[in-house]
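Q: Hi! First time doing this. I have a protein sequence and I read that you can turn it into a structure. Is that right? Here it is:
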Amino acid sequence: MKISWPHIIATWFGSGLLKPGPGTWGSLASLPLLIPVASYTGIYGILITGVFLTLAGFWAINQLDLTEEDPPSIVIDEVVGMFITFLVTPLTPLGILLGFALFRFFDIVKPWPVSYFDKNIKGALGIMLDDIIAGILAAIGVFCVTYFVIG
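A: Yes, that's right. Below is the predicted 3D structure, encoded as structure tokens:
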């Protein structure tokens, strides 16, 4: 991929180029933006920033000349998934660890319905949508753990 704004956004400032596990690096690289946004603006800031990042992700991916269906270096979808997860994640060390771990679990394991979107939807929509669904599942998991287990 050629270095350009779409490349910078899609690889989330190059974090998607790190090995091994570019998706994990991209998820971690979301935290320097995610935590301050969540801390200072709350759920509305997370939601607005997440929508902006989703639109930026679609734009960036559509600008790239991709040679494979879902290149591992594209991690803007992981960033968006983390923002969705953190809509309900408490900003405590345990909460951050739980949100990160649950999102990575759903993104890596890809249970249904994540696997459906990963296999059946192509292009920018497919790249983004499976991580959006993984983020929703992780948010549900965080909510259940914090509400029913931690109380």
